[in-house]
Structure formats: C-alpha cells, structure tokens
Amino acid sequence: MKNRTRTNWPVMILIALGTVFILFPLYMAVTIALKNQNDMLNSIFGLPTNLRFENFAQAIEMTNFFQAFRNSAIVTVSTVVLTILTNSLVAYAIARNMAKRKFFRGLYFYFISAMFIPFPIIMLPIVKLTASLGMTNLLGLIILHTVYGLAFNVFIYVGYIRSIPIDLEEAATVDGTGTFGTFVRIIFPLMAPINATVGILICLSTYNDFLLPLVIISSPSQYTLPLVQYVFQGQFNTEFNLAFASYLLAMLPMIVVYLFAQKWIINGVTQGAVK
C-alpha cells in the first residue's frame, strides 16, 4: 500500500489566512491607485469602474519622481558600497582578534549593545551634530546610514568570517602577504555570499528609510522618494488615489531587486551560521 500524507488542515488554514492578510493590502493599493474620486466615495474596497492609469503620470509630476528616485539611488548605492567595504574590514579585525585580545572582544559586545538603542533617543543630538558639521545633505545621509548599519553588520560578518579556516591566512602570511593583502586577496572574495546578503539588506533599509532623511535633509531638491510622498497630504483632504499610485511607483524598484536577489539573503545567513 502506498503511504498517503495526511493534510494538516489547521496549518493549511493558517497559511491561507496569512496569504490573505499579506495580499489584501496589495490589492487595496493597486485598486485605489487606479480609481477616481467618485469610485473612492462609492466603495473603498470595490474594483474601479474605469482604470485611471493617468494617476501614475500625475503622481510622477507632483512628486518630481525622477529627481527623488535619483536621490534615493545615489544614497542607496553609495551606502551599500561604503558599508560593504568598511564594515567588512571592521568585522575582520574583530573576528580574528576577539579570541586573543579583550579589547576586540569588548568592541564586539559594544557593537552588539548598540543594536538595542532606539533611533529616537539619539535623534536630537544627531540633528544638532549634522547641522553644525554641514552634513544636512545626501553625503551626510550616506555617512549616517553606513554608521548606523555597523552594529548589525558586524554581528553578521563576524559569524561568517569565523567560519573561514584560518589556515588560509597563515599560508598567505608564510608567503609574505600582509594583513591587508590577505584580506583583499583571500578573505574578501570568500565573503561574496555574506556581502550579497548585507548589500541586499542595506539596500532595502536605506531605500525605504523615512525618518533619517526627514530629520537630516534640509533642501527639497535632495528629498528621497519616501519624503516626497508628503505632497499628497493636504490640510483638509488627502488624494489617496494619487498617493497610492506614487507608493506603487516607489515600491517597484525594490520589489524588482528583491525578486532577483532574495536567494542570497537566506544563503548568506545560512552559510554564516554554519561553522
């Protein structure tokens, strides 16, 4: 007799409910973005009577979408590159010295403890410091994003680097390669999976960040995509159909990035956890 796998109905029901809860907001966003004001008044949950793709064109014009997207792209790409280059070096120094030196062990736990500090607590000092240093621009935003990601990235990087056999570095040292040369030629190429993971996570968090650009950026010409969504908030009403059209346009680049790169996230974290 063939073994028949029994269906776990409670789990199936929970999965179905979870799918509905996830897809329903997306359904609402798409349908509202394609409605006119009359459809909004008649039924907020119903389908649009006429598809208004003009909402997307109007949203692009109102938000100056392409300039805001350029600002977001500059900040995101620069932050990802700077984060991978600098945070991996810091993590490498900690991972190879924390077992022998108390300073590096303490430094590691110092970074870990920084993960538990909420941003609103340090928001006011950061605003004053960046204003005094003239960093209320995209460059300051890039630097702050790189620094704020250091704690979590060190935590991920250290676990991965410690899984790399130290024999490779000892062989390079015997051949006369210095510490920096060993990192560049041997360790960094082996860190490709975890670099991809960190890069994707930083890309998503930086591109979608709203609070840090809100308190840092002073010039409207340097607003990122999350900030320009304020244009739809009126004093007495909100144009929800145009707002949701703009939200979908802003989401689209990161959805594409995530669809092509999601396998690297799990792959990098899994490899970093296995020693």
Describe the structure.
- By secondary structure, the chain is an all-alpha fold.
- Helix content is 75%, strand content 0%.
- The chain contains 14 helices and no strands.
- α4 crosses α8 (150-161) and α5 crosses α8.
**Amino- and carboxy-terminal Cα gap:** 42 Å
Number of helices, where a helix is a run of at least 4 consecutive DSSP H or I residues: 14
Q: What is the helix/strand order?
A: HHHHHHHHHHHHHH
Oligomer: single chain
Biggest sheet, in brief?
none
Proportion of residues in helical segments: over 70%
Structural class: mainly alpha
Number of strands: 0
**If you average the pLDDT, what whole number results?**
83
**Molecular shape:** globular
Radius of gyration: 24 Å
Uncertain stretches of 5 or more adjacent residues: none
Strand content: under 5%
Short description:
With 275 residues, this protein is an all-alpha fold. Helix content is 75%, strand content 0%. It has 14 helices and no strands.
Question: What brief labels describe this structure?
Answer:
275 residues; mainly alpha; 75% helix; globular
Which SSEs are present, and which pair or pack?
Blueprint: H1 9-33, H2 37-42, H3 54-63, H4 65-97, H5 102-114, H6 119-132, H7 138-148, H8 150-161, H9 167-174, H10 179-190, H11 192-208, H12 211-216, H13 225-228, H14 240-273
Helix pairs in contact: 1-14, 3-14, 4-5, 4-7, 4-8, 4-11, 5-8, 8-14, 9-10, 11-14
